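Hey, resending since the last one bounced:
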Amino acid sequence: MQQVILARGGAYAQGYRRMIVSPHYTRAELMKQFSGDVLFISGTYGSVVDDVFMRFFVAGSLKREEDLLSSVLAILGVAYAHGSHGRESICDLYLPDRAKVVVPAKDDDLTQFIQDGRVVRWQDELVQLLGEGRLTRSAVQTALKRNRHVADFLSSLS
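The structure tokens again:
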């Protein structure tokens, strides 16, 4: 991917400023270098924003996650569950507060920083969907089986 972006006659040289990339084939340092000029759009598996970010980061080669997070415009995690009204989406959306310039360096603090920056929380979505009877706890557990926090969250609702 770096050749496509940087090569003479490559995407960047041709004036492209929105590029769809794969974190597995694009160096994170390269995305960081061009983040002021280019909107990189990428996807990876995940229903919780901090997991999505960490999966993206693990695929890259930056030594410090916070170096890339300072350039992120949004992170969206989506899961789908089968409910009484058909397929329901459960979303988690991080939009950074540009006034908070300092991104924490420790992994635990970074995770909390991302979670605190969410404008749509999967927990709030579940409260509504469960409260309206649109989803069952079983459907939630199946849909969010990779979410390490869902069991504790469901227990807290009892």
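The chain has one domain: 43-156.

Sorry for the duplicate.
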